[in-house]
Amino acid sequence: MLTRRDVDVVPRAVRRLLTTVLVLASVATACGYGSQAPGNGTGNVAAKGARLSAQSVRIGFFPNLTHATVLVGDAKGFFRNELGGTEVRFSTFNAGPSEIEALNSESIDIGWIGPSPAVNGYIKSGGKSLRIVGGSVSGGVKLVVDPDKIKSLKDVKGKKIATPQLGNTQDVAFLNWIADQGWKVDALSGKGDVSVFRTDNKVTPDAYRSGSIDGAWVPEPTASKLVAEGAKVLLDESSLWPAKKFAVTNIIVSQPFLDRHPDVVEAVLRASIGTNEWINSHPAAAKAVANAKLATLTGKPLPGGVIAAAWSSLRFTDDPLSGTLAAQTEHAVRVGLLEEPELTGLYDLAPLNKILHAMGRSPVDDAGLGVQ
Question: Which 3 state secondary structure label does DSSP give 160?
């Protein structure tokens, strides 16, 4: 089993290189974080009503199911209703780093994103670029394999398994799971007792179909797309976490925007909370709305069987599950992809807890990583 001592003996220069690679290459997806630049948004909209402190707010997200809060919230008008006369502009991204870059360059103000790119954006800026202000989605990540080649977890040893990208949330989770089995893999090259192939989620089904990989540790809907190709779910990552909950998609905000426009941030959070409530109360309708929005953004909806299987594994939550993000970061350190980071100040959950208190709901915790 790979221990902390094993990680500590890695030369410091090599660990600095690994940290740099992680910061530059990380995606999160969770989400199924790909590698493309930002795409077109879902339009610029403003509702009737008083304008808040900002004329507009720009929101970034990924056009996939793990960002369904935005898909449904936009389609059902939750954001327009909460923002009143403040215009909301949506932009889509296929990669965590490009969304972080957009946030840093003030091309967007708020984003839905996975934990790894949020952590890396925070580290890279010296803790000055962003805050996590809320949660959105838990679950929806699975180890899916060729049942003819892999019949049990121990059979994964010696096989070729895909993850979305070096250092992304699923890549770290898989490397940590490998270490738990007592197997060894070089984190940078992916070579070892298991061959880890970093493959864009868009091409993973083709790679599986051609036999180039034997399975994949991937988010939805990629996992269910592989199942549609004949693969089987060998492990649901949620089974590895307390209460089967772990951070997959969170809400981040530019620190300068939060300082200047706290009322706008609160409005976006109210819209997200309202959307998640509606999704959880109307799962079938929400699934259909999300798929219709995906069809608009990507050109085609997901097949019925794929979205049904994928949707059933997602959990919509306002809690950012900060304790699990802290654990995910420890996993990245353990496998040699990060040096021990300082994450105090990563979260500012005061706006979210203010809203939850007004609703008579319990506050959420920042795991000691909040603003001091």
Answer: strand
- The residue whose two tokens read 């105090």 is 344
**Residue 283: exposure state from Cβ atoms within 10 A (0-12, 13-18, ≥19):** middle
Q: Are strands 110-113 and 215-219 parallel, antiparallel or unpaired?
A: unpaired
pTM here is 0.84
Instruction: Determine the 3-state secondary structure of 348 from DSSP.
Output: coil
How many other C-beta atoms can be found within 10 angstroms of the C-beta atom of residue 304? 10
Cβ within 8 Å of residue 285, ≥6 positions away: none
Describe the crossing of helices 283-298 and 304-311 by its angle, rounded to 10 degrees.
Answer: 120
Q: DSSP code of 163?
A: E
SS3 content of the chain, % helix, strand, coil (to 5): 45, 20, 35
CA distances, 127 to each of 132, 218, 269, 323, 360 (Å): 11, 29, 22, 18, 32
Q: Which two tokens stand for residue 293?
A: 């929005």
Exposed e or buried b per residue across 142-175, where buried means at least 16 C-beta atoms within 10 angstroms of its C-beta: bbbbbeeebeeeeebeebbbbbbbbbbbbbbbbb
pLDDT tens column, 37-61? 444 455 555 455 678 999 999 999 9
